[in-house]
Amino acid sequence: MRHLKTLDYLIFLLALSAVAASAAWSSSDRSGEAMVEVEAAGQKYVLPLSVDTDLVLEGPVGKTVLEIHDGVAAVTHSDCRDNICVAAGGISHSSEWIACLPNRVFIRITGGKSSEGGADAVAF
C-alpha cells in the first residue's frame, strides 16, 4: 500500500478549494439590475425592467407593442395572425422570453434574479 506524501495532500487541498470556490461563485448574487433586451427590425434595444416604458416595434406584418410596467414586460398587441406573443403574458425574471416570429421580434430578460425553481424538466 502506498502512503500519501505532502504533495499529494497539497494537490487534494487545491482541488477541494477549487470546487468550493466554484460552488460559492455559482451561487453568489451576480445579478445586477434586470434588463429587457429587444431585437426587432435589425435593431437591438436594452431597457431597464424597473422603468415603465411603452415601445412600438415595426415588423414585416405590422406593429408589435411592448409594455413594461411594474417590473413586468409584456406584448399587449401584435398584428400577427395567432397572437401567441400576446397570450404568453408578462415576463419578469432572468432568462424568460417572448417571441413574435411573424414580426421577427424577440424579447428577453437578462440580469436580475432567475425565476424560482431553477432548471425545468426539459433540461434533463
Can you walk through the features of this model?
The protein is α+β, with helices and mostly antiparallel strands. The protein has helices at residues 6-27, 84-87; strands spanning 35-40, 43-48, 53-59, 62-69, 72-78, 97-100, 105-110. The protein is built from 2 helices and 7 strands; from the N terminus they run H-E-E-E-E-E-H-E-E. The strands form 2 sheets. A 4-stranded antiparallel sheet has the order 2-1-7-6, with no helix packed on it. The chain is elongated. The model has no long low-confidence stretch (mean pLDDT 85).
| Portion in strands | 35-45%
Number of helices: 2
Poorly predicted parts? none
What distance lies between the first and last C-alpha atoms, to the nearest angstrom? Answer: 41 Å
CA-based gyration radius: 22 Å
> By helix and strand content, what is the structural category?
alpha+beta
Outline of this structure?
The chain is an alpha+beta fold. The chain contains 2 helices and 7 strands, in the order H-E-E-E-E-E-H-E-E.
Write a concise keyword list for the protein shown above.
124 residues, alpha+beta, 4-stranded antiparallel sheet, 3-stranded antiparallel sheet
Any chance you could write out the topology, listing elements then pairs?
Blueprint: H1 6-27, E1 35-40, E2 43-48, E3 53-59, E4 62-69, E5 72-78, H2 84-87, E6 97-100, E7 105-110
Antiparallel strand pairs: 1-2, 1-7, 3-4, 4-5, 6-7
